[in-house]
Amino acid sequence: METLTESSPDLKPVEILRAWPDASICHGFVGRTGGVSTGAFASMNLSYWVGDDERAVDANWERLRREAPDLKLVASLNQVHGNVVHAATRDTAALRPAGDGLVTAEPGVILGVYTADCVPILMVDSKRKIAGALHGGWRGTIADIVGAGVRAMVKMGACASDIAAAMGPSIGNCCFEVDAELGRRFGREIAGARIHTRAGRPGKAYIDLRAVVRDQLERAGLAAANIASVGPCTRCASDRFFSRRAAGGDATGLQMSFVGFAE
To answer: How far, CA to CA in Å, does 199 sit from each of 184, 190, 222?
Structure first.
């Protein structure tokens, strides 16, 4: 297979979905098109930790920064499917601590989370210039990563009722089929989650993960009108977004969702 390069005419545009029109909020949900990675990582894989060619990832970042020039300093995590949230500053942005949430009050520090079916959650308090980014897989959702993220922003000075949140492309209730016991566990351990599960094939259940996360955001103090859902089911739209489910559980690239305030 021919390797695409920066000069290849076959490169597609970089897709970035936005939630808010405010130009001072540097944010977006990056899709999988427009990069140079190949094979399982085709094409806009932005993760250096999944086995992709490092040179291809470098080229993908170069292309992304042309579309989003404010991505000069991006803080990220060693994501572990829990509920630990870290504060990111200019001094700590390069550390990649173990956790699933980042918050910052420093303009110019951009928070990034990586997904391939899990729910990326971006949050901003525009009045106080405080941002948060969360990685919401099913384990982190049960552990209430959302509540931990909102509390971390409030501790920095944010007001929960002023926080706007956007959930990005992630697996939908059409495709998130799990063992029936996990569906029952959601109903037992997360308030209100039972109404967001339905029976599937024998021994299986479907969970509407974004609906569960939305409820958690409201319980954490966000106004319903301040919560947006952006983009399609990643498995249904696996041509536009990486999906571990669509890949049959095999290794795949990761898309990045990012948020922060411009300097």
So the answer is: 10, 18, 30
Which CATH architecture fits 23-261?
4-Layer Sandwich (3.60)
The whole-angstrom separation of Cα 29 and Cα 128 is 23
Domains of the chain by residue range? 23-261
pLDDT in tens, 27-42: 999 999 999 999 999 9
Regions of the chain short of the pLDDT cut 70? 1-10
CB atoms within 10 A of CB 10: 8
Decide the pairing of beta strands 101-104 and 85-87.
Answer: parallel
Task: Give the global pTM.
Answer: 0.96
What is the reported pLDDT for 75?
Answer: 98
The enclosing H or E element of 214 equals helix 209-219
CA dihedral 23, 233, 38, 113 (to 10 degrees): 50
Q: How much is the pLDDT for 165?
A: 99
Check if the beta carbon of residue 129 is closer than 8 Å to that of residue 105: yes
Going 170 to 172 to 177 to 180, the CA torsion angle's sign is positive
